[in-house]
Amino acid sequence: MNVAIMGAGLSGLACAITLEKMGVTPTIFEKRSQVGDRFVNGEAFLPALNRPIADCYAYLSEKHNIYIQPLSNIRRITVSSENAQATLHGQLGFLNVRGRDRDSLEFQLSKQVKSEIIFNSQYTYENLLQNFTHIVLATGDAAYTAKIQDFRQDLTVTLKGATVEGSFDKHHVGVWLNNNFAPQGYGYLLPFSEKEATITLGYPDYPHNQKFDLKSLWEKYYQRVCRDLQQDLRVTDNFEVTRYIIGICSSPRLGNTFFTGNCFGAIMPAYGFGQLPAILTGIYAAKDLCGLGNYRELIKPLKQSYKYSLALRRAVEKLDNNKLDRLVRLIDTELANNLITNPYINLMKLLGFALRPYQIMKEV
Ligand SMILES: Cc1cc2nc3c(=O)[nH]c(=O)nc-3n(C[C@H](O)[C@H](O)[C@H](O)COP(=O)(O)OP(=O)(O)OC[C@H]3O[C@@H](n4cnc5c(N)ncnc54)[C@H](O)[C@@H]3O)c2cc1C
Question: Hey, whose CA ends up nearest to atom 37 of ligand 1?
């Protein structure tokens, strides 16, 4: 067996680490000149969206011998709508950094990989098919999957973000649900440290959202964040991602090709969380390659989570600002806090069940 991994990101590297532990040495092909050679941004793991996994760092080390460290843990999330605010307390998740930062998640994973990584790769999938018995497609880009097989695209998203300097509590995350600047989407603030944070705005590219001008939405969002934090945040860097695809492939494995991470459909449609599903798909593909599992079976819970998350998105994106205010007031109750922080309650499953009328589950 001769395995090529296309893409040295979360799923590709998790796959390589797992293969190596089982005695298989893959060859990794990476388009960029080094691991994580892209913009720096803060990302989060929220267990409420990944139940039953309560602590993904402990889970990955204990179950899969993959060792990564967060920047910090999340102890407070403040959710703001136009006229309401809610604060959740408890062990709510973890923060990490991505991209060109020596602590980035991809950099941490790459330190556990011994196999060769061929950088500046221009090899196509077709080139690799000729030279390898098995391929793991891990390019982080669902457009690549769509060239090879059916990929059900549920939406694309515009994302604009910035690194800002100010004064932050590194355990405190901010979320904004407000159609005035995040039509059917949301804004969030994830701190890297006491002095730096990422602020990001994301919304779906539905035809009726095309009328919005990203620059003016961003300006409104930035002003609102500054107002709520009572600070003049200084922008030191920024990024934009256009037409970020959210969807799911029809065959996670096609012949001897495994589709992992975003190439599989790792990004959860409700709030765009894809890091843990990406890492898990890499591990599962490696297990199948080593005869220790069946990829199609192992990824079934992720497909199910995708369905629940899509149902949640479809429901929340129907809410106008008044209803978002009501939702936020509902979140600001002891009961909601307990539901969200209780590790024994599978929140996505519960919401998916409650939102049955919105479900398009049978389509997936
Ligand atoms: C702005 C933004 C914010 C996000 N925030 C969160 C968050 O807070 N929490 C969360 O859970 N998820 C978040 N996500 C989603 C999460 O980052 C992704 O789901 C996850 O990184 C996908 O992992 P992957 O392995 O599929 O791809 P990646 O980790 O992106 O890796 C893909 C790798 O493939 C390489 N590559 C691309 N094309 C080729 C090619 N042709 N040949 C060789 N190599 C190639 C790339 O250079 C890259 O190194 C966010 C995404 C974005 C864009």
Answer: 139
Name the region of 250 (left: φ>0; alpha: ψ -120 to 50; beta: rest). alpha
Q: Side chain identity at 342, as an amino acid letter?
A: N
Domain 3-363: what homologous superfamily?
FAD/NAD(P)-binding domain (3.50.50.60)
* Kind and range of the H or E run holding 350: helix 347-354
Confidence bin at 364 (pLDDT 50/70/90): very low
Backbone φ/ψ region at 118: left (φ over 0), alpha (ψ -120 to 50), beta: beta
- Nearest 10 degrees: CA dihedral of 185, 213, 267, 319? 20
Q: Given ligand 1 and candidates 17, 31, 283, which is best to mutate, with the most ligand atoms within 8 Å of its CB?
A: 31
Pairwise CA distance, residues 319 & 183, whole Å = 10
- Ligand 1 centroid to Cα of residue 137, in Å, is 12
Q: How far is the CA of 311 from the centre of ligand 1 (A)?
A: 23
Q: How far apart are CA 203 and CA 157, in angstroms?
A: 5
Residue 254 and residue 137: Cα distance in Å, rounded? 11
CA quadruple 269, 105, 261, 306: dihedral sign? negative
Residues 277, 282, 288, 293, Cα dihedral to 10°: -40
User: Which protein residues are within 6 Å of ligand 1, measured from CB?
Assistant: 6-12, 29-32, 41, 43-44, 121, 138-141, 159, 161, 200, 241, 244, 261-262, 266-267, 272-275, 278
Question: Phi and psi at residue 251, in whole multiples of 5°?
Answer: -125, 105
- How many beta carbons lie within 10 A of that of residue 95, not counting itself? 22
pLDDT digits 0-9 by tens, 286-335: 999 999 999 999 999 999 999 989 988 998 999 999 999 999 999 998 88
Mean pLDDT of all residues belonging to the chain? 94
298 Cα: distance to centroid of ligand 1 (angstroms):
21
Q: What is the distance in A from the centroid of ligand 1 to the CA of 131?
A: 25
The stretch 174-191 carries a mean pLDDT of: 98
